[in-house]
Amino acid sequence: MVERRDFLKAAIVTVSALTLGPGSKVSASEGGAPFTNVIYTEGNPGKWAGKAKTHAPMVDVAAGKVSVKTTHPMSVEHYIVRHTLVLGDGTVVGGVTFKPNDPAESSYDLPPGYKGKVYATSFCNLHDFWLTEFMV
Questions:
Q1: Which of 7, 17, 32, 74 could lock onto 26 through a cystine, CB 3.0 to 4.6 A?
Q2: pLDDT at residue 121 in the model
Q3: Cβ partners under 8 Å of residue 133, min gap 6
């Protein structure tokens, strides 16, 4: 359980770094060492090489709405726990928590006229925190 708490602490600190913007320095250890291998992407799967196809969130943007899908098999033992959508300035648009038998699909309305960077996240109970960055 301690390992899971450490991971969740790391994920929260990393997401905070994203919301503070580029140039912000955030560290999760008291010694100041930066976190590595906390957020995974299609281009940087880290220790989860080969897992991006079923873990990195896929996004579709149409008419001010963002649809997020993670093509991950869902079972009690291994599933996508949550999606979250965050604007480039750190504003959380929304999030959906899934049960093991739910499809890992969610949708969000963007603020009217929003243009800029957006982050879609997907959290797997076994393979950590995945992020897809895109522009609208």
A1: 17
A2: 97
A3: 41, 117, 118, 119
Find the CATH number of the domain harbouring 95. Answer: 2.60.40.730
Inter-residue long-range contacts of 96-100, CB under 8 Å, 24+ positions, other chains counted:
98/74, 100/74, 100/75, 100/76
Print the domain residue range for 120: 39-135
Tell me, yes or no, whether 76 lies in a domain: yes
Query: Over the chain (136 residues), what is each successive 10-residue block's mean pLDDT?
Result: 51 46 35 57 91 96 97 96 96 96 97 96 96 96
SS3 of 19, please? helix
Q: Indicate whether this model's pTM tops 0.85.
A: no
Kindly state whether residue 12 falls inside one of the protein's structural domains: no
Residue 4 lies in a domain: no
For residues 40 and 130, the answer to whether their CB atoms sit within 8 Å is yes
Helices marked H in 21-75: 52-55
State whether the Cα torsion 92-58-28-116 is positive or negative: negative
